[in-house]
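Quick question: what would this complex look like in 3D?
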Amino acid sequence: MSSVIEFTFDDKELTGEKGQSIAAVLISLGTPIVRLTRFEKQPRSIFCGIGICFDCVVIVDGVANQRACLTQIRQGMSVRSQP
Amino acid sequence: MIAIIGAGPAGLAAAVAAARSGAEVALFDASTNFGGQYWRHRTDVAGYKAERAQKYFDAVISSPNITFISEAQVWSAERRDGLIQINYLQGGAESFLTVEKVILATGAHDRTLPFPGWDYPGSMTPGAAQALYKGHGVVAGKRILIAGSGPFLLPVATGLAEAGAHVVGLLEANSPLRWARSPIALLRNPLKFFELIYYLRLLRRYSLKPQFGAAVVGYENGVAQIARVGSSLRAKGVDRREIACDVVAVGWGFQPDVSLGGILGCVEKVDRDGTVIFQVDSSQLSSQANIWIAGEATGIGGADLSITEGEIAGLAASGSEIPKKLLRKRSAQHAFARALQKSYPVGDGWKEWITPETTICRCEEVSHSAILDSIHELGAEDSRTAKLLTRAGMGLCQGRICSRNVAEIIAGARKCEVSPSERIAASNRPLAAPISLGVLADGESLN
């Protein structure tokens, strides 16, 4: 588990370990807010952690509604927050 | 060929039993690795009876009869010319596999109850906290409060402490004295005492002292509000204790995922505690021919019962005889599952914790007051109508998180009980996983 993966979250360059999910990296870096909600702009983060609740959805390489808790980081991946 | 959906304890046990009987098995899981939520692992397996999980992993890897189809999201299944077609997404691409027989071992997720602040970052399920440290090597926060009800809180609290988190509290809403109501179930499952001793030792090692009769009733700005509660979950008095923490991990037992079996027409029923589960016969066969169901979806009972049910389903699906000993074991484990229900009831007192502003449907941001308005001002009489009026339960999770709570809120406001048919309707959904219209359209052209 030593190989380092580089990716971006809203254009910020981040690194994590191979096998980690996007959400796990964000939480390990102390930045748990994954998105702001559509209507009330409330901050949300990982909740169920296993792909059931869809609270941590993000845009991965242009594809929306990807669950940050399930999606493993890949080298060069672009992750964007989604409303 | 037998398709097994879900590679947790039940699915793995089913796969190994069926493969040993000579059957060809396709084992599906949404995750990269097998193990499911409970035996989730990253590099090695740790925890109570870890060697048992390893034994199943090794058996699956070494069996030439088992093909593991990982990162596969099964979104639907259908009957086709006497066979069953499993439709799944893998790496964004649509695939299907046609098989003679299916074993559903789709498991469960944490049951959650709303409280003010449960939608803020830092509030998560115990399952999420466990998934983060077991699956990704990440401790969810520096100071973690574990709360809710049920024995699952023990492995989560001790596992997090072992992983280096400061567990600032372990709150169990129910009293341990409730186990006294189930003496026979305890005597029939003596090995459970070893499991209890295992966790008591870990609690002592990490100086964790569970507090009984307490629940988190609010979370704001890094402070959890704690109330004393009884088994009804009604708060006793108005005094609230405060615990500072970065993470509150609150869970109230488990909710099985019945979507796929529902799509296949397997008959469901309502368990004693209101959970919607499948009806199965003594061989775990569902109401549908050639579809067996094992594990939490036939009644919440934990990994031991899931393994036994999986083994029985695997043997039955591969046409092997089921040893009497295995059936007796399941009967004792069923008794223990009933004892769990009696010991860790989830009352409806939580409806008094929530305020008008509390979010009930997280996806569509529907507040408690919006749901009450749909009843009192718009005339909704059931959760389906309230859903259409408020969008509660119509978001991406398809009501997996809120539909049971919405139904309870509406029944409470109308001073009636949630009917069994309403519970079953609220648990079913047209797709087992969300997919794009493009994929659906492509699926049509396959016909």
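Answer marked as accepted. The longest strand of chain B covers residues 235-244.
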